[in-house]
Specification:
mainly alpha; Rossmann fold; 7% strand
C-alpha cells in the first residue's frame, strides 16, 4: 500500500479489512483523502449474497456476519475524511456523489491552506 500511496494520485479501493490495521490507517491519514462509502446493511447483504467470493461470508448468514463486522469496523471507518452515503442507486450515482463530496472537501482544504 505504501508503494501505491507514494506514487501518482490514484483511486485506491482498500477493502474493509484494511482499515483494521493501525499502520494502514496512519498511512492513509498521512498520504490520502479517505472516503467511507456508507450503505445500509440490508443493501450490502443483498449485494454480497449474489456471489460466493467473500471468505468471511461463505456458508454463513450475510446479515449476521455484516452486523458483527459493522460493530467493529464502523468506528474506524468513521475516521475517514469523508462519508458518502450510497444506497440502492447505480454505480454511476455513487461515483457522482463521491466526486461531488471530494470537490467540496478539496475546496475546504484549499481555503484552510490559504488562511495559514
Amino acid at each position: 500500500m505504501r508503494r501505491l500511496l507514494e506514487g501518482p494520485p490514484i483511486v485506491l479501493a482498500t477493502g474493509g479489512g484494511a482499515m483494521m490495521n493501525a499502520e494502514t490507517r496512519a498511512l492513509l491519514r498521512e498520504r490520502a483523502d479517505t472516503v467511507w462509502l456508507r450503505a445500509d446493511l440490508g443493501v450490502i447483504a443483498e449485494r454480497v449474497a449474489r456471489r460466493d467470493t467473500r471468505p468471511l461470508l461463505r456458508g454463513r448468514d450475510p446479515r449476521e456476519v455484516l452486523t458483527g463486522l459493522a460493530e467493529t469496523r464502523y468506528p474506524l471507518y468513521a475516521e475517514a475524511d469523508l462519508t458518502v452515503d450510497v444506497g440502492e442507486g447505480s454505480h454511476g450515482q455513487a461515483v457522482d456523489a463521491i466526486h461531488r463530496e471530494l470537490r467540496r472537501h478539496w475546496r475546504r482544504k484549499r481555503c484552510a491552506e490559504t488562511k495559514t
